[in-house]
């Protein structure tokens, strides 16, 4: 199907696709087994200029938007969602600087992130603050020209691998959610260390670690925006990034579907390829229907965001995460069913697709939280209409 | 270091078939690619430039469509490209081709190293690289698997050449020509900025009148060899196929082999 | 040089339109018209035309007085003073060509301290051996060796020169061809003489072996061709066969040594003697993982054979390139060739189809390898190979 992409968008997709075919697919099984961070592939992604895509031209970027990022994440996920999330997490860390940072911060950090020389990460989740983001305990106490950071972040993607971290911490605990601020912390700052690396079910090659702050002093100049805007920045960041998780799910589902189609054309039972059986055809058809619907949803949401015409799109962005991630879960499970016993074995990549898919229903706001957002927005919208 | 890389646009070999009725190549729907061996040459050129500075110029001879291959080179990061395209080049064999390419080098004048892939995947002759070197009367080493060193004075080069028993380390003065094997590197992919540049780039085309050349040595007239016939190779006759339990099959096979005194 | 349609012969049948790879032909008023801006003179239309209505006119080259050139030469390749088998194979083929032409067959032996080897060349069919024995030729150099050959060609004017398509031959002969200058056809698999025109008909694979092409060199001399090792058959050695050994003087200057050999490294991982093996067991993509090559090795060991592989297995990094059989690897001609988990793409077939017996093991009954296999087993190689190893251990 022609997705009406511009010539430049086609180029971006093609480049990401080449990385998947040539660099990721040959090693993904090993990466999954060892859980080793794909540093070499990240370099390839950087060499292809893909980290430049969502950064403005004046800071060494290409000046693309949400759709371009989604195209890359989708293609990379077709190979390995663990690689894709390592790419996407850097974009998640870069976004607050790009969107809310000072000119000085942009000049200092964005070119390094655009070239892919350095990776970024975003740190919000804590042991006692997951879905309830208002409960974060990490503090950033102002002291003279500095903030003193104390606390622990968990499950941070690119933890240890990134050089530039955007951390959400309480600058004023009494104000609750309005007392949170976003701060840039560089790797190597005294008092900033990394805890254990998580051993995960899926996306195993991505680095997921604890960040530990122990009287870590950072200059006041590293504050993004004003004090107290931490949650606004966080919400804006997630509103822009959720369709990226959708794209990750989409690529994963597409990869599993491709494997299922290929296998069913090769596997012979009762003297015929299983693709000739209607039971299999219907499974494949249902998978394809869901994948295409997810793609249409993600692309149109991303285009809407990039158009800048709509100010509040938390509902749309939540939808573009929930549906594709549920699709990815269903499609990858079904792909295993098409492959039967072989699908359950690690010799084929479909079981990995399934393990990878699960996290997409969980991270960047669980699908339950997303449904809350969607529900609340629906009620708000209906009230507005009544007025 | 000024580096010249020669490439050729070729069809993806596996797709080329012969039409049994007309006895000619079926090229419809066959995609053109850069000769895979030339990709290593381009990559090596870029690596030498990155290490030593200078420029990489990629040259190809072919019809106007060969421009696409040169755009891909720009997307990979080469500095300049040239397309040699003229009706009088048509029908060139390896002698005429290497002569034509050497004329382009003479026009450029200032160069230190020429890199070619070890052979083209459509013809597999491996003759054009050594041919260019001979036309220019410069030293060459074929089947290079590694550039060991280019000393600071940039007057010489030391390379590893694959030979049947292992490899030889050879040294020669620059300017020189090498042909490279796939062991030498892993070619990079294109970059987005490169692709954007490639889209905009004007591809310079040199014709007969742009270079100093002897018309009688070009194209069909300058080609000693002529193809007089093409045909599909005779298939081997199909033999006996065993199916079923592995052990039964093996027993049957070994019986047959004994019967026919193969073992 | 031009191409033209002979209107009297053209029937307007349109076959040439589909034959043209460049869309350069159309039919107007029932006559073919060639767009000269698009045509690259590939000649596809000429071989397609059933009425002989298209012709390429070529300027007569004014190069050689062809009649002066007589005799068939074989470049006798030697390494460290030992003559390479391919040279004997070429003498075997050269003998046939020389007999057909009723001319002499000569070998050219170039090196340092190699004169004593010349008798082996006559014993393999040469009527004459030209020897250039010079300390300056101790190590192989394209520049010095080509100078030696060039001088001899100018002195004796052979009609045909054959050389091995080895790493040496594929570098030396292209250089020599440009020096002379003349045509050179690489990697020939068939050589014949056109009796009428006394021309060498050189047949070689192109496009990865999908296509064979027959090539001639009508106006330039000598006619030069390289042939891959194991393609031609050598004659049995006959020490009683005598020939003339002629010593030739060639002067070398420093400029003739354009490259310098600094070191020679023998590398077992690079060197695999597939070309001399009588039995080859090859593995391909069907092995699924690098460690499974041990199955192939076991079977090869049980039979006393060598290990080969398909390009897919090499590209996947499972086994070094030196084991690769096929178009971009080695050409082999063993007595028995086992293809295990190899689909048998044409590129692979090029390197093994002259084996006396081909045994294919593949789970896909549609795999092209079965079309050329003498015997095939459709099945899981992880079951078949262990069974084979067991069986061969019993019977051998």
What are its keywords?
heterotrimer, B: Rossmann fold, two-stranded antiparallel sheet, C: 396 residues, alpha/beta, Alpha-Beta Plaits, seven-stranded parallel β-sheet, 11 helices, globular
CATH topology of the largest domain in chain A: Butyryl-CoA Dehydrogenase, subunit A, domain 3
Count of strand segments of chain A: 10
Describe the largest sheet of chain A.
4 strands, mixed
Gyration radius over CA of chain C: 25 Å
Strand order of the largest sheet of chain A: 1-4-5-8
Broad CATH class of the largest domain in chain A? Mainly Alpha
The rough form of chain A would be described as: globular
Taking all Cα atoms into account, the compactness measure Rg of chain A is 21 Å
Beta-strand portion of chain C reads 25-35%
CATH topology of the largest domain in chain C: Rossmann fold
Q: CATH class of the largest domain in chain C, please? A: Alpha Beta
Order of helices and strands of chain A: HHHHHHEEEEEEEEHEEHHHHH
Report the β-strand fraction of chain A as a percent range. Answer: 15-25%
Q: What can be said about the biggest beta sheet of chain C?
A: 7 strands, parallel
Question: In CATH terms, what is the architecture of the largest domain in chain A?
Answer: Up-down Bundle
Find the count of extended strands of chain C (DSSP E, 2+ residues).
22
State the CATH superfamily name of the largest domain in chain A. Answer: Butyryl-CoA Dehydrogenase, subunit A, domain 3
Helix share, percent of chain A: 40-55%
Question: What do the pLDDT scores of chain A average to?
Answer: 95
Enumerate the strands of the largest sheet of chain C in spatial order, edge to edge or round the barrel. Answer: 11-15-10-5-8-9-16
Architecture overview:
- Chain A has 387 residues and is an alpha+beta fold.
- Helix content of chain A is 54%, strand content 15%.
- In chain A, the strands form three sheets. A four-stranded mixed β-sheet of chain A has the order 1-4-5-8. Chain A has a four-stranded antiparallel β-sheet with strand order 2-3-7-6, covered by helices on one side.
- In chain A, helix 7 packs parallel to helix 9 and helix 7 runs antiparallel to helix 11.
- Chain B has 263 residues and is of the alpha/beta class.
- The longest helix of chain B is centred in the N-terminal third of the chain and has 17 residues, at 36-52.
- Chain C is an alpha/beta fold and 396 residues long.
- Chain C has three domains: 2-57, Alpha-Beta Plaits, CATH 3.30.70; 66-256, 3-Layer(aba) Sandwich (Rossmann fold); 279-395, TPP-binding domain (Rossmann fold, 3-Layer(aba) Sandwich).
- Helices cover 25% and strands 27% of the residues of chain C.
- Chain C has helices at 15-19, 44-48, 85-101, 118-123, 142-156, 169-179, 293-303, 311-315, 346-349, 369-372, 381-395; strands spanning 2-5, 25-28, 31-34, 54-57, 72-76, 78-79, 82-83, 105-111, 128-133, 160-164, 184-188, 190-194, 199-206, 211-216, 223-227, 244-247, 259-266, 279-283, 306-309, 336-340, 357-362, 375-378.
- In chain C, the strands form six sheets. Chain C has a seven-stranded parallel β-sheet, sandwiched between helices. A five-stranded parallel β-sheet of chain C has the order 19-18-20-21-22. A three-stranded antiparallel β-sheet of chain C has the order 12-13-14.
- In chain C, helix 5 (142-156) crosses helix 6 (169-179) and helix 7 (293-303) runs parallel beside helix 11.
- Chain C is globular and about 65 Å long.
- Chain C starts with a strand and ends with a helix.
- The model of chain C has no long low-confidence stretch (mean pLDDT 88).
- Chains A and C meet through loops of A and loops of C.
- Strand 15 (240-243) of chain B pairs parallel with strand 22 (375-378) of chain C.
């Amino acid at each position: 199907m022609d997705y009406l992409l511009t010539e430049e968008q086609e180029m971006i997709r093609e480049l990401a696709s080449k990385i998947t075919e040539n660099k990721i697919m040959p090693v993904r099984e090993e990466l999954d087994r060892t859980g080793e961070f794909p540093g070499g592939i990240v370099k390839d992604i950087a060499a292809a200029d893909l980290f430049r895509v969502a950064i403005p031209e004046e800071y060494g970027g290409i000046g693309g938007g949400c759709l371009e990022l989604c195209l890359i994440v989708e293609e990379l996920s077709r190979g390995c969602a663990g690689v894709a999330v390592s790419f996407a997490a850097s974009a998640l860390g870069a976004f607050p600087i790009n969107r809310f940072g000072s000119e000085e911060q942009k000049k200092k950090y964005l070119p390094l992130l655009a070239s892919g020389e350095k990776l970024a990460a975003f740190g919000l989740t804590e042991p006692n603050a997951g879905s309830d983001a208002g409960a974060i305990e990490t503090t950033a106490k102002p002291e003279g020209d500095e903030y003193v950071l104390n606390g622990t972040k968990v499950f941070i993607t690119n933890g240890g691998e990134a050089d530039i971290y955007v951390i959400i911490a309480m600058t004023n605990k009494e104000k609750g959610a309005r007392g949170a601020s976003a701060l840039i912390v560089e790797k190597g700052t005294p008092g900033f260390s990394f805890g254990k690396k998580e051993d995960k079910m899926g996306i195993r090659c991505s680095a997921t670690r604890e960040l530990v702050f122990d009287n870590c002093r950072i200059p006041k100049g590293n504050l993004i925006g004003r004090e107290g805007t931490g949650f606004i920045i966080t919400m804006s960041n997630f509103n822009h990034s959720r369709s990226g998780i959708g794209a990750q799910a989409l690529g994963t589902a597409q990869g599993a579907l491709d494997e299922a189609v290929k296998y069913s054309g090769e596997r012979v039972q009762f003297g015929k390829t299983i693709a000739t059986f209607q039971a299999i055809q219907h499974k494949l058809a249902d998978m394809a229907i869901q994948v295409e619907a997810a793609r249409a949803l993600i692309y149109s949401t991303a285009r809407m965001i990039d158009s800048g015409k709509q100010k509040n799109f938390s509902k749309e962005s939540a939808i573009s995460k929930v549906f594709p991630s549920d699709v990815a879960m269903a499609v990858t499970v079904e792909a295993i069913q098409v492959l039967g016993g072989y699908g359950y074995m690690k010799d084929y990549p479909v079981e990995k697709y399934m393990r990878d898919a699960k996290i997409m229903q969980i991270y960047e706001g669980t699908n339950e939280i997303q449904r809350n957002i969607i529900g609340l927005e629906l009620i708000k919208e209906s009230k507005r209409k009544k007025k | 270091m000024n580096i010249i890389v020669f490439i050729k646009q070729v069809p993806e070999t596996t797709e080329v078939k012969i039409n049994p009725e007309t006895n000619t190549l079926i090229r419809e729907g066959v995609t053109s690619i850069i000769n895979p061996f030339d990709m290593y040459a381009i990559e090596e050129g870029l690596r030498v430039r990155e290490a030593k500075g200078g420029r990489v110029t990629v040259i190809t001879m072919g019809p106007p469509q060969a421009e696409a291959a040169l755009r891909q080179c720009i997307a990979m990061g080469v500095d300049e490209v040239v397309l040699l395209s003229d009706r009088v080049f048509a029908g060139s064999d390896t002698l005429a081709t290497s002569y034509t390419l050497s004329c382009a080098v003479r026009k450029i004048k200032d160069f230190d190293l020429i890199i070619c892939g070890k052979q083209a995947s459509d013809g597999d002759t491996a003759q054009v690289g050594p041919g260019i070197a001979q036309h220019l009367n410069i030293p060459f080493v074929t089947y290079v698997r590694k550039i060991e060193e280019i000393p600071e004075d940039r007057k010489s080069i030391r390379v590893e050449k694959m030979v049947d028993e292992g490899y030889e380390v050879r040294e020669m003065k620059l300017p020189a020509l090498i042909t490279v094997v796939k062991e030498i590197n892993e070619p990079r992919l294109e970059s987005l900025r490169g692709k954007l540049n490639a889209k905009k780039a004007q591809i310079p085309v040199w014709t007969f009148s742009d270079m100093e050349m002897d018309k009688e040595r070009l194209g069909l007239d300058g080609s000693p060899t002529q193809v007089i016939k093409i045909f599909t190779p005779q298939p081997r006759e199909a033999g006996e196929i065993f199916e079923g339990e592995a052990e039964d099959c093996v027993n049957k096979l070994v019986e047959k082999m004994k019967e026919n005194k193969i073992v | 040089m031009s191409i033209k349609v002979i209107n009297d012969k053209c029937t307007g049948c349109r076959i040439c339109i589909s034959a043209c790879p460049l869309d350069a032909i159309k039919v107007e008023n029932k006559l073919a018209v060639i767009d000269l801006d698009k045509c690259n003179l590939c000649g596809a239309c000429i071989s397609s035309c059933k009425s002989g209505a298209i012709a390429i006119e070529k300027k007569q080259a004014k190069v050689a007085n062809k009649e002066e050139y007589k005799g068939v030469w074989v470049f006798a390749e030697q390494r460290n003073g030992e003559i390479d088998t391919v040279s004997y194979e070429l003498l075997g083929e050269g003998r046939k060509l020389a007999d057909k032409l009723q001319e002499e067959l000569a070998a050219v032996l170039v090196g340092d301290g190699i004169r004593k080897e010349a008798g082996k060349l006559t014993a393999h069919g040469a009527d004459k051996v030209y020897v250039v024995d010079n300390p300056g030729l101790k190590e192989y150099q394209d520049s010095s060796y080509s100078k030696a050959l060039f001088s001899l060609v100018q002195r004796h004017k052979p009609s045909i020169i054959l050389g091995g398509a080895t790493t040496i031959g594929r570098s030396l002969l292209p250089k020599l061809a440009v020096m002379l200058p003349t045509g050179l056809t690489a990697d020939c698999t068939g050589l014949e003489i056109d009796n009428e025109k006394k021309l060498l008909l050189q047949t070689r694979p192109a496009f990865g072996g999908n296509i064979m092409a027959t090539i001639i060199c009508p106006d330039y001399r000598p006619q030069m061709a390289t042939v891959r090792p194991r393609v031609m058959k050598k004659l049995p050695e006959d020490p009683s066969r005598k020939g003339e050994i002629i010593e030739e003087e060639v002067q070398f200057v420093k400029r003739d040594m354009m490259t310098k050999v600094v070191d020679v490294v023998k590398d077992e991982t690079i060197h695999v003697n597939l070309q001399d093996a009588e039995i080859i067991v090859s593995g391909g993509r069907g092995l699924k993982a690098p460690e499974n090559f041990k199955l192939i090795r076991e079977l090869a060991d049980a039979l006393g054979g060598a290990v080969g592989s398909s390009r897919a297995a090499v590209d996947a990094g499972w086994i070094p390139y030196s084991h690769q059989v096929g178009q971009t690897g080695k050409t082999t001609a063993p007595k028995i060739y086992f293809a295990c988990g190899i689909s048998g793409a044409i590129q692979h077939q090029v390197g093994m189809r002259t084996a006396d017996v081909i045994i294919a093991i593949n789970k896909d009954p549609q795999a092209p390898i079965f079309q050329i296999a003498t015997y095939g087993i459709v099945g899981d190689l992880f079951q078949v190979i262990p069974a084979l190893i067991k069986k061969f251990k019993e019977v051998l």
